[in-house]
Amino acid sequence: MNGFTPTIGQTFTVLTAGSVTGTYTNTTIAINSSEHYVISYTSNSVVLTVVSGPASQSSSAPQAVSQVALATKPVTSSRHATLSSKLQRGPGAEKARGTAVLVAGMGARSGLMRAGGDSASLRVWEHVPSAPSWTRVPVVTTQVSAPVRGTAIVARSGLQVSNNSSQQGIAVRAPLAGWMGGSNLHRAPVKIQSPSLVRMRY
Amino acid sequence: MQLAAANGGITTNAANLTLTGTAAKILDGANNALAGFNNNTGTFALSGGATLTTASSNFTNSGKVTIAKGTTLTVGGTGHSYSQTAGTTTVDGTLTDTGAAGISLTGGTIQGAGALKTNVSNGATVNVGDAGKAGLLSITGTYTQLSTGTMNVSIGGTTVGTQYSQLKITGTASLGGR
Predict the structure, then answer these.
(1) Chain A CB contacts of B128 below 8 Å
(2) Between the N and C ends of chain A, which has fewer C-beta atoms within 10 Å?
C-alpha cells in the first residue's frame, strides 16, 4: 500500500477482541518475492509478522511465528552445511563424496563430516571408539611393611590385575559381571615381592 | 422532502437516495417515510450528520449503502437484522442494530473506518478501512467469520488506524475463512 515495504520483524496487530477463537485458513500473506506476513494469534488479537522469503502456499495448520521464522531463515554463511538426500544412497555413492552434513546440535564447523569420501575418511560409526577390554593404568612402587594390604585393596575393588611385565603399567580388566564381585572369572594372583609392593592409584 | 400523498412510505429503494444534514428527512404526510425502509437495491447514503432509524423489519441490502462519518443508521425494532446479500455497505459513521439480531453478511462487502454497534457475522468480505485506505473499524459485540468469509486489511505504515488497519472487537472473535 502506497509503496510501503515493511521490514522483517515488524508486527501489525490487525485485530483485537475480548477473546479470539479459531483461526484463518491461510497462514501467510504475500507481500513480494522476498517478504511475506505470517499470521499468529494471541488470546485476544491477531498479529501479522513480516518474515523473509516468498509466501508459501496456504496450509490448513497454523504455525507459531517463531517456528515459521526459523524455517524460513536464510542461509547466510558459506560454511553452513546442508543435508543432502544423496547420503542415503550409501557410502559408495560417488556423488555423496565430500557432502557436508550438519549434525543436529552441533555448530556448523564442528558438525562437518565427510560421507562416502576417500579411504582416509571415516563414516559416522567409525568414529566411535571400541572399548578396550584391557586398560592400562599407572602404577607406583613403594616400600611397605605389610604386603597383605596390597592384596586386600585388589580384592575389595574387584579388579583383576595382570602382571605383564612386558608393558608399562599394569593392565586392569573389569569383570564382565560387574565391578563388585559375582564374577566367575579366575583372578590372577598377585605376586608381591617384599619389600616392594604394587599399589594401584585410582 | 415530502411525498405528495401519504402512501405508507418507502420500503424499497431502487434509486439513488441521499439524506444530507441532521434535519434531513422524507415525510410521508406527517410521518417519516423511511420508517418502513427495509430493502435497498439502489444507492442509499447518509451524510452531513444525518440519521435514520428503521423499525418495521429486517433491513436487506443488495445495492450500495453509505453511512458517512458523523451519521447513523439504526435498524430498530425487536430482533431485526441488517442483512447484506450483495453490494457494498460503507460505514464510516455508525451502523446500529437495537434489536440485537446483528449484521449478517452473506454477500458483497462491508467496509469502512466506523462503528458497527451490534454482532457481526461475516460470510462474505469485510474490508477494514475504506477502499484502498487503512482504518480502524470497531465492532461493539461479537464477530464471527465464517468459512466463506474474508477480512482484508491495508498496511501502509506502522501507525494503527491511520497507516494500517485494525478491526477492534469488544466481544469474542470467532475466526474462520481467510
Answers:
(1) 14
(2) C
How many residues would you count in chain B? Answer: 178
Residues A193 and A140 in one domain: yes
Q: Over 90: is that where the pLDDT of A167 sits?
A: no
By the 10 Å C-beta count (0-12 exposed, 13-18 middle, 19+ buried), B41 is classed as: middle
pTM of the model: 0.62
**Residue in B142, B146, B99, B3 with CA at minimum distance from that of residue A20:** B142
Asked whether the beta carbons of residue A19 and residue B172 sit closer than 8 angstroms, the reply is yes
pLDDT in tens, A14-64: 999 999 999 999 999 999 999 999 999 999 999 999 999 998 764 433 333
Residues of A in contact with B169 (CB under 8 A): 15-18
CB contact under 8 A, B170 and A17: yes
Q: Which long-range contacts (CB under 8 A, 24 or more apart) does A155-158 make?
A: A157/A200, A158/A183
Handedness of CA A77, A80, A85, A87 (dihedral sign): positive
Interchain CB contact of A1 with B (< 8 Å): yes
Kindly state whether B128 is in contact with chain A, defined as any CB-CB distance less than 8 angstroms: yes
Identify whether A149 is part of a domain: yes
pLDDT digits (tens, 9 = 90+) for B39-76: 999 999 999 999 999 877 899 999 999 999 999 999 98
Listed by start position, the domains of chain B span: 12-174
Contact A24/B at CB under 8 A: yes
Same domain, A139 and A196: yes
Please check whether residues A122 and A140 belong to one and the same domain.
Answer: no
Closest CA–CA distance from residue A72 to any residue of chain B (Å): 22
The backbone torsions φ and ψ at residue B129, rounded to the nearest 5 degrees and listed phi first, read 105, 165
How many domains would you assign to chain A? 3
Q: pLDDT digit string (tens) for B114-152?
A: 999 999 999 999 999 998 899 999 999 999 999 999 999
The more confidently predicted of residues B153 and A134 is: B153
User: Looking at the domain assignment, is residue A5 inside a domain?
Assistant: no
Q: What is the predicted ipTM?
A: 0.94
In a domain, A3, yes or no: no
Domain extent, residue A36, equals 11-71
In a domain, A79, yes or no: no
Question: Do B158 and A12 lie within an 8 Å CB cutoff?
Answer: yes
Q: Whole-number mean pLDDT of chain B?
A: 93
